[in-house]
Amino acid sequence: AASSACYGFIYLGGLAAADVADLHAAPMLACLAMTSEGRTMIAARPDFAAWWERLRLRPAMADTRAVTTD
User: Quick one: DSSP state of residue 11?
Assistant: First the structure.
């Protein structure tokens, strides 16, 4: 299912709405996106980057902030 984002599906499960696969991956991707290397990796895969952008802009994701110890 994780590779679905690479084949033009809207969400990981191949659905038009986020499902448990997307919600499980979201916190890990949010942490990855906090690093320059992670942003580079995400940007290198346009379909994956588009999936992450759709997920990141969902209200529940947009309203959630990562807690860091910086």
Answer: S
Residues 32-69 have pLDDT tens digits of 999 999 999 999 999 889 989 988 888 888 888 766 66
Confirm whether pTM is higher than 0.85.
no
Helix runs in 1-70, H state only: 20-32, 36-43, 46-56, 59-62
Q: Is 13 in contact with 19 (CB distance < 8 Å)?
A: yes
Tell me the one-letter amino acid at 58: R
60 residue type, one letter: A
* Residue 62: closest CA among 36, 35, 26, 8: 26
Tokens 């990562």 belong to residue: 66
Eight-class DSSP state of 13:
T
